[in-house]
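$ ./design --mode recover --in tokens.txt
reading tokens...
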């Protein structure tokens, strides 16, 4: 159970009553239904044995789905949430008790799971991958306490909330009209070309379709970060619909040869498996941009979506007709998403080339600006202020070329935040969301802005919305969520979320710093020093004096608290 001590301190009697009710009404029933045996309870947790690994996983999914439904109407600070770890391994039996390495690994996997999540071992994954239609994410190997060898874990993604709940919660308001918005996920298209290097071209087409659809206020569109987890996987459309909580799924294939391109695509009702619309297009390669617009237009028509006034021109506005520049941006974005100093530099060179090929290509300029912002934000440069100035210059250039570009407005807000212009940072972030109502990343960026502006409660609400728009979200979303919890004094919850973020991306420096800060603030200095060391591994040039210049808190005490904690953790001045 997540946050057990906090809930017990808040209201011990009520917490025990709610736990008892959950056991009798849900947990014990599900365990019995799937032939499990409760071996023992530990106050805030329990150990269960199953004769079938599939039964164990199905029980975990059923419990987490039911808990998500129950928590949908409960305030965040009063929710009871569980983490579940599942292992298949040898155990030792002694009377009714079991112990041994098989149990120890399950316990460590539970610690790697997110609140409300499930983490399984590779031995479990091998048994159930073909049996249970779930979305799995390989979270790699982890060295854990009292286990000699690293354990290899998989997170079960997307099956942890019901489609009905996610469809309702994805809406910014609770009006009936919004609840009825069609929801769609665009899966990566299959590259049917003989040239494997055309993969980025195919992915870029799909990204552009997602970007265009996400600007339409009458649709709920799942973010690219989530849909691309299905890349190169055989999928069951109905399972995808359940996992991503959408009614419709677009899939397709692309064959590119010479100057010709063939696209086959179909829009499927994920509830029934029936085709809503399908088509095959044979065009010249220079028609690729018009072809993307044609596909999105067909989707809008098939789903009977009405565009509001002004959307028509904005939704189908194109930044370039230069295919070479567009391809440079696609390649650069692949580098940028790796979030390392070296890959950021490679991305910058590609974005610069795109801007040279088409000086009026607004997206090339704004993404070039983001690489300079990253240098300043993550201290990948000896002159963060110069990098920030470059980012500002390119964001303004992009807005001058295309003022309704969501990314450019989001970058303007991120730069304003660096300058401690909190009013402008919030205004630009809100404009970015208005221009891209389904924009998971721009929503998460505004959440980050509210953290630094001293309003972590608003940040929590926005990051939850971003996670609903991208159910298989990036690690940095969790860092934003944990940051808000830390600022609210909910350190144990923050620590758990930071750990989940690091499980996804061990080199995410913001998560390492946040975790070191939270651990130091509650006196766990040995653990804090470990993450301080990891910070220096990621960036050997890190110093507190440079970091202090990047702390843009509206409230000075927040900066002082962070720096004091990191000094305790042993980071160099």
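writing sequence...
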């Amino acid at each position: 159970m997540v946050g057990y001590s906090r809930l017990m301190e808040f209201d011990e009697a009520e917490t025990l009553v709610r736990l008892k009710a959950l056991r009798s009404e849900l947990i014990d029933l599900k365990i019995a239904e799937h032939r499990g045996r409760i071996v023992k309870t530990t106050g805030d947790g329990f150990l269960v044995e199953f004769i079938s690994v599939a039964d164990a996983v199905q029980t975990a999914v059923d419990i987490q789905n039911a808990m998500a439904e129950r928590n949908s109407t409960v305030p965040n600070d009063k929710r009871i949430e569980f983490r579940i770890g599942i292992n298949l391994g040898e155990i030792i039996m002694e009377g009714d008790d079991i112990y041994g390495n098989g149990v120890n690994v399950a316990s460590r996997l539970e610690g790697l799971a997110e609140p409300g999540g499930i983490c399984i071992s590779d031995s479990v994954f091998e048994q159930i991958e073909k049996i249970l239609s779930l979305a799995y994410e390989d979270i790699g190997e982890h060295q854990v306490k009292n286990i000699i060898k690293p354990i290899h874990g998989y997170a079960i993604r997307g099956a942890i909330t019901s489609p009905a709940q996610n469809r309702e919660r994805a809406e910014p308001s609770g009006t009936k009209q919004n609840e009825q918005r069609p929801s769609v996920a665009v899966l990566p298209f299959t590259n049917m070309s003989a040239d494997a290097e055309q993969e980025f071209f195919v992915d870029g087409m799909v990204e552009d379709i997602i970007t265009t659809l996400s600007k339409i206020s009458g649709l709920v569109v799942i973010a690219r970060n989530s849909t691309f987890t299905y890349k190169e996987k055989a999928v069951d459309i109905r399972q995808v619909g359940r996992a991503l909580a959408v009614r419709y799924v677009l899939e397709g294939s692309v064959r590119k040869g010479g100057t010709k391109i063939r696209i086959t695509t179909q829009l499927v009702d994920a509830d029934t498996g029936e085709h809503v619309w399908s088509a095959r297009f044979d065009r010249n390669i220079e028609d690729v941009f018009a072809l993307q617009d044609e596909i999105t237009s067909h989707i809008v028509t098939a789903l009977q979506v009405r565009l509001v006034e002004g959307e028509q021109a904005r939704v189908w506005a194109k930044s370039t007709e230069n295919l070479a520049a567009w391809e440079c941006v696609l390649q650069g974005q692949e580098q940028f998403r790796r979030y390392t100093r070296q890959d950021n530099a490679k991305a910058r060179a590609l974005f610069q080339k795109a801007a040279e090929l088409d000086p009026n290509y607004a997206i090339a300029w704004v993404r070039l600006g983001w690489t300079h912002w990253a240098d300043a934000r993550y201290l990948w440069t000896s002159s963060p202020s110069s990098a920030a100035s470059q980012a500002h210059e390119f964001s303004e250039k992009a807005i001058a070329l295309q003022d309704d570009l969501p990314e450019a407005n989001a970058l303007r807000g991120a730069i304003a935040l660096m300058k401690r212009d909190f009013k402008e940072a919030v205004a630009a972030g809100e404009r970015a969301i208005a221009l891209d109502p389904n924009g998971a990343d721009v929503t998460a960026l505004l959440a980050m802005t509210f953290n630094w502006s001293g309003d972590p409660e608003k940040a929590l609400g926005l990051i939850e919305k971003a996670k609903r728009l991208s159910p298989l979200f990036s690690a940095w979303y969790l860092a934003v969520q944990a940051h808000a919890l830390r600022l609210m004094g909910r350190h144990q919850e923050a620590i758990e979320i930071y750990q989940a973020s690091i499980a996804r991306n061990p080199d995410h420096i913001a998560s390492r710093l946040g975790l070191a800060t939270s651990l130091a603030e509650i006196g766990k200095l040995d653990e804090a020093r470990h993450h301080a060391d990891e910070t220096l591994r990621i960036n050997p040039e890190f110093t507190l004096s440079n970091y202090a210049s990047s702390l843009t808190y509206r409230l000075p005490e927040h900066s002082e608290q962070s720096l004091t904690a990191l000094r305790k953790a042993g980071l160099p001045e």
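exit 0
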